[in-house]
User: Fold these one by one.
Assistant:
Number 1:
Amino acid sequence: MKTAFITGVTGQDGAYLSEFLLSKGYIVHGLKRRASLFNTDRVDHLYQDPHVENRNFILHYGDMTDSTNLIRLIQVIQPDEIYNLAAMSHVQVSFETPEYTGNADGLGTLRILDAVRLLGLENKTRIYQASTSELYGKVQEVPQSETTPFYPRSPYAVAKMYGYWITVNYREAYNMFACNGILFNHESPLRGETFVTRKITRAASRIALGLQEKLYLGNLDAQRDWGHARDYVRMMWMILQADKPEDWVIATGKTTPVREFVRMAFAEVGIELEYKGEGVNEKAYVKSCSNPEFQLKAGKEVLAVDPKYFRPTEVDLLIGDATKARTKLGWIPEYDLKALVSEMMEWDVKLMQKDKHLQTGGYDTYNYYE
Ligand code: NDP
Ligand code: GDR
């Protein structure tokens, strides 16, 4: 029976990876931050009463900025595998919190690697580092593969660049089984609400149900290679089961503009959109609505651009080449973009229907527009 330690266990990937590893018979330890409210929504279904013996899902308080905490936990857990997923993961927010992002995402990675080294676990513990397609940043070549040069375009990406290289360096310097997964964007119903895909599927559901008037977005031209988180966490595990430690690109190989993702989300519930205008004046209107459940009239404006969501430096185009993962590890994604959008819309429509019932019953519900 193997033991895994997941930092960022309460995040999107942490939740899917926990489920996956538990299904493989692992004992899973997770790092969670102390918060003034419960922050374990995504893993609550895995929670086990701490008074029960032989638990296989155990959460520990900690923080990526606290070396002594990380060293102590790794010493106690003695993990076979560490998945370092914890990060301040929002690109736009990293422009507002650059120093903290560098500390948690960059130095945080060093703290994990060095804890393993200090504890003499180099030969026992394999380490997965959550690297990112944001490393490619300003387009150097398409599609982007393991050999494409990096050009990070945000404090987040620069911090992750440190994480990438310190992982490579510890592998080479201390012979550690430490690997980077360079993952392109991956989404799901568990995606954080302020990332663009989830912001869109939540808003499309709320607009359809009459709970929200309009969706405001930033750059509609940005193109992303969107996959499903469930497919990507499987690959994280495969990376640590490989014969030797290497770095891997994980992507679908298809790219889609934000504008098209919006169209697909609305179409999923029978609402056809038409776009008019350009740049900051671009808007989308309802062209037709074939779903009798929704009272949307043709001509209703449902999308406008708000420049506050523009980034000081943007990553325009990401499209990944995962040939190495496919051919050497046999990784094949099960979801395409249509299936992803469909699952996210189904989830959010159900969630917002609950909100609507609550509102009808006289209870308050809230929606934040970030
Ligand atoms: P999320 O933002 O959903 O989850 C991030 C996790 O990190 C949360 O559990 C969060 O805790 C935790 N965390 C943040 N800061 C700290 C800290 N200082 N100490 C301890 N824990 C912390 O991210 P995803 O699940 O989407 O992504 C997982 C990892 O993969 C991240 O490192 C991300 O940068 C990277 N990545 C993600 C991609 C994607 O498309 N999703 C693509 C490529 C890389 P809390 O719940 O308390 O906020
Ligand atoms: P990204 O994801 O920056 O690629 O980072 P995000 O969903 O935030 O943005 C994708 C693209 O959409 C554009 N965009 C908007 N983005 C947000 N969040 N909100 C908006 O209103 C909006 N309007 C347009 C953005 O400008 C961008 O071009 C994600 C994170 O998960 C990182 O942690 C991870 O490393 C990368 O994916 C790969």
Number 2:
Amino acid sequence: MKVLVKSGGEAAVPEWREGFQAYDPRVSAHWWEDASVAPEAVDYVVVWEPKPGWLKTLPNLKVVFSSAAGVDHITCDPEWPRHLPLVRMGGDAVAQRMGEFIVWSCLSLLRDTRHYAIGQATKTWSVREGCFTATQRRVGIMGMGNLGSQAARMLQGVGFQVQGWARSRKELPGVVSFAGAAELPAFLASTDILVCLLPSTPETAGLINADLLAQLPKGTAVVNAGRGSHLVVPDLLAALDSSHLSGAVLDVFEVEPLPADSVLWSHPKIIVTPHAASLPSRLDRARYVAAAIADFEAGRPLPNLFDPERGY
Ligand code: NDP
């Protein structure tokens, strides 16, 4: 079975190959531009930002695997093969890493890590007094899927009060669940740290805007690890500069890499990370894809399928 890989550059192919071979020696991995592989011979692809129009040139492709949990980098191609199953990267490794990032972000906001980073750079001894403990803060997670629910469990582990908002109601022990647009205002009004782990869809584009931010209590902080499209940056900046918001951790941006002239890089209340919240190792991802291929070949269902109706 031949898998073409377009993720991490050509130099990463040996690592992908090693991961596939360790799990299932029947799978051989090749760089997407490998001229020795005829388009008709390709069974599967694992891709990040596939070149528009390329996927439709593979006539015997069975499944498209996204090398990330989001699939917007594939579905933005007007010609992506809609008739094929599209699998989002998932599994324990992705969720664990994201959970760690969200716990780190919330603790960083709680302890004002940005303030201390600036203090260290300027050799300034300035103590933030009277900060809250985790037990005194309510973290509200938008998007309670694979990643959001794991983040909720891990946040509870360090003492945060946790609530979640999604399209449908969830039952996670100790997590207050809000569902749908009707319950969004109540969710926002009872949130001290807002965490976005939503997928990028037409419904979620620009959701974190001035109107939404105004519904958060004064002093709320924001973490965006979903997609850059969720956040209206000028609205966030206005809310930070008026002190309605206390801080933000941003991992994803409308334009990536974040341009050097972006004000976000140096804002005193913003921590910027380079879309690094949850990047499982290639070996982990190869194992996940190889296991899914084995399931598919054996007639078992594929995991984490993209649903075109829902848009995620
Ligand atoms: P899932 O599909 O498992 O979960 C998505 C969640 O969002 C679900 O709870 C869903 O609700 C909810 N949701 C979707 N649309 C809406 C809406 N319109 N209103 C309210 N809730 C909505 O995805 P994952 O948890 O695996 O991943 C989430 C996102 O995280 C990815 O799409 C990607 O954008 C981002 N991500 C970022 C990474 C990073 O490094 N920064 C790495 C990996 C992912 P319901 O449960 O009711 O269906």
